[in-house]
Design goal:
365 residues; 7-stranded mixed β-sheet; single chain; 2 domains; alpha/beta; Rossmann fold; 19 helices
């Protein structure tokens, strides 16, 4: 089975410098258990690494892109070679100097292809590798060029202080949600601008309706119903670092556990389709599928879903996000896959990576 995404999108550049799915939500949705085996989309590696906090037996990370795997490799090397404060500096999560020296300490742990990529991108290392992707540069353009035209530094700081739900809602309605905010947001987060500056135009092939309107609605939810002071994704978008909150993989209480369990993580450059072709028996207790189904047709989605189910153990869970394209288990395989809608809806209401329109959790029967 060939990969539609591989045929239509460019994977030669680093698309994501960090993972943009909430690992707190992922770990609970997957119900990661000690000793079990999981398959994960690699992306930048954060969420595959976060799964190690639950001490699984094996985590296999896949990606079509060798440079995305280079991002994962450098993270693994950093956990092995650096202290936790040094890891945060290398990532760009906290301020500091000496990123080049930190990289040099990690470099011998990398494969030749990963070394070649990072050696050729010293600027990305210097600014922090968490900001090195196209998607992060898109947010940086918004943060540095657009946001100052709409809100003052003091307003941004007040937003990030959070407060009670009533205080957050009042601040958003009275000070943040101006006509200028809505106008510029709808332009900058439009299908055209996001496709060319942030993601890939082919990723919007199956999207219907207004992209910006949907994201604006979810943004209001994240800034009022959720607490920005506890949201690492909001903080990175607005400040370019993690001011007062960290994602799972970077929290200090998880550092030693992750370091101790790195041997349980492996990675391969392959599409999900071609990797599963080699699996002849149910092998996996769970699948972290990111939002990969957004980029393929409904017909290819169903074919791939059937192949995933075939590779899953009974009771194994599939976890994936919809951002703009609606993907859920079709009725044609309702005897093989059970939607866990109550769990998915509860976790989606807590999802700090707020721009997704739905979280999907399904269980192999």
């Amino acid at each position: 089975m060939s990969s539609e995404a591989a045929a239509s999108a460019d994977f030669s550049a680093l698309r994501y410098g960090q993972c943009w799915e909430d690992a707190d939500v992922l770990l609970e949705a997957l119900n990661v258990q000690p000793g079990k085996t999981y398959l994960s989309i690699a992306s930048a590696g954060d969420n595959a690494i976060a799964m190690l906090t639950r001490r699984p037996g094996r985590v296999i990370a896949l990606d079509l892109s060798s440079v995305q795997l280079a991002a994962l490799e450098l993270r693994v090397a950093a956990y092995r070679e650096l202290s936790h404060p040094e890891l945060l500096i290398l990532m760009g999560s906290s301020p500091g100097e000496g990123q080049e020296l930190l990289y040099r300490r990690c470099r011998s742990q990398l494969s030749e292809s990963a070394r070649e990529f990072w050696d050729a991108h010293p600027g990305d290392i210097q600014q922090g590798i968490g900001g090195a992707g196209k998607f992060e540069r898109y947010f940086a353009a918004f943060r540095n060029r657009i946001l100052p035209l709409i809100h003052s530094r003091s307003q941004i700081e007040q937003l990030l202080r959070g407060g009670t739900p009533d205080e957050r809602a009042a601040f958003y309605d009275k000070e943040w949600d101006t006509w200028r905010w809505r106008l510029v947001f709808r332009i900058f987060f439009s299908r055209f601008v996001m496709g060319h500056l942030g993601r890939d135009p082919s990723f919007f092939k199956y999207v219907e309706g207004s992209v910006a309107a949907r994201i604006l609605e979810r943004t209001r939810y994240a800034l009022t119903q959720l607490n920005p002071a506890q949201n690492p994704y909001v903080q990175w978008i607005l400040t370019g670092c993690h001011a007062s909150a960290l994602p799972v993989a970077l929290r200090p209480e998880h550092f030693e556990c992750i370091r101790a369990n790195l041997g349980r993580l492996e990675w391969h450059r392959a599409s999900l389709e071609e990797f599963l072709e080699r699996e002849t028996a149910p092998s996996f207790d769970g699948f972290n599928l990111s939002d990969i189904f957004e980029y393929i047709s409904p017909e290819n989605f169903e074919r791939l879903l059937r192949r995933i189910v075939k590779a899953g153990q009974r009771g194994g869970r599939l976890v994936y996000w919809n951002m703009l394209a609606n993907r859920h288990r079709p009725d044609s395989i309702k005897d093989q896959l059970l939607p866990l809608d109550d769990l998915a809806n509860r976790l989606h209401a807590q999802d700090k990576a707020f721009f997704y329109s739905a979280l999907v959790v399904e269980e192999v029967l």
